[in-house]
Design brief:
By secondary structure, the chain is α/β, with parallel strands linked by helices. It has a single domain, classed as Rossmann fold (3-Layer(aba) Sandwich). The protein is built from 11 helices and 8 strands. The protein has an 8-stranded mixed beta sheet with strand order 3-4-2-5-1-6-7-8, with helices on both faces. It is globular.
């Protein structure tokens, strides 16, 4: 890796206006690149946290290409779009998902919400303020990349998990995303989950490598060092593809599989180290 991994300056999105303070009890799950399993991690992490007795809601914050409903095999009659447009109340759009947690689904193709307008910003803040009091943790399943809408959704969260795979393109985009989160949102701690690892320990080694690149190439204010926290590896596992094709949660279809056990360990780490910080 090198500083060439940084996002290009030309054509980069303008820094979005962000809340003065991230909202408590909110954890964003994001990625630099699509197709790395971000929504899979969000949904199964939610199920694992619910199994531990927590009140969990997942909000599908990928407004343009939402697919949480596909992963969960849900067909909602009311979506986030209906709440945004005033056609439905917030409580009517919250659906009970398999796995014992709640979801607020976006609905695909919300083109009018693909840009961060003052209206989109206000809608998001209104929705979040209505959700937070009722749950122990709210997971934001964001879109991939560094668009203004994605960055604004992430800015609402007290803590962020970046999901990546060992592929060079995924790591390049993860680095770019982390660099933007540090530069625009002044984040000092970013949590990493490395999906589809081939060997035990690969993910931690990748996190260490990313940390070294950040230490070398990303300049921060004195006393504000960037810290990557490795939350866990999720091993490559044929049970994952089978669950996705069946539109089932891995924790329900193959709870004893290596990937399911890894997600359960991730949930324990989130409960032990993240929730106390964001509550």
């Amino acid at each position: 890796m090198s500083d060439a991994m940084a996002p290009p300056a030309a054509g980069a999105p303008a820094p979005p206006t962000v809340p003065l303070k991230p909202l408590g009890k909110v954890l964003a799950v994001t990625s630099g690149k699509g197709g790395v399993g971000k929504t899979f991690v969000s949904a199964n992490l939610a199920a694992a946290l619910a199994k531990r007795g927590l009140r969990v809601l997942v909000l599908d914050a990928d407004l343009g290409l939402a697919n949480l409903d596909v992963v969960l095999n849900l067909y909602p009659k009311v979506t986030l779009h209906d709440v945004f447009t005033g056609k439905a109340k917030l409580e009517d759009a919250i659906v009970r998902a398999p796995g014992g947690f709640s979801v607020l689904l976006a609905g695909s193709g919300m083109v009018e919400y693909s840009r961060l307008t003052p209206e989109v910003r206000d809608d998001f803040l209104r929705i979040m303020s209505g959700l937070i009091p009722h749950y122990d943790i709210v997971l934001l399943d964001t879109g991939a990349g560094i668009s203004d809408v994605v960055l604004f959704a992430v800015s609402l969260a007290s803590e962020v998990i970046v999901v990546a795979t060992p592929e060079p393109t995924s790591l390049t985009d993860a680095y770019a995303t982390i660099k933007v989160l540090v530069g625009q949102q002044k984040r000092q701690t970013i949590r990493m989950v490395i999906n589809q690892t081939a060997r035990l320990g690969d993910g931690r080694a990748i996190t260490v490598q990313l940390q070294q690149v950040l230490d070398r190439f990303v300049t921060t204010e004195p006393g504000r060092a960037i810290r990557l926290v490795h939350m866990g590896d999720i091993p490559a596992d044929p049970a994952v593809r089978q669950a996705i094709m069946r539109r089932q949660l891995l924790l329900q279809s193959s709870p004893g599989s290596p990937a399911a056990l890894a997600i359960s360990q991730l949930a324990q780490k989130v409960e032990d180290t993240v929730i106390p910080r964001i509550s």
